[in-house]
Structure prediction request, 56 residues.
Amino acid sequence: MGMTITQKILAAHSAKVYQARPFPEFMQQLMGAGGLINYVRQRVMVGLTQEEGVVE
Prediction:
């Protein structure tokens, strides 16, 4: 995907590091796709190709 999602947040103004819970898998996929619209487009295209018997 080219995107690294970490569980740490760096506060630039204070240089403090905060721990965070990881995003759920579907949210990581949504962000990796570049947002909601792209995510839905990808999901629709996968569904269409599977219905037609074409698997990428």
Residues 50 and 56 are 9 Å apart (CA to CA). The mean pLDDT is 78. The chain has two helices and two strands. Residues 24-56 form one domain.
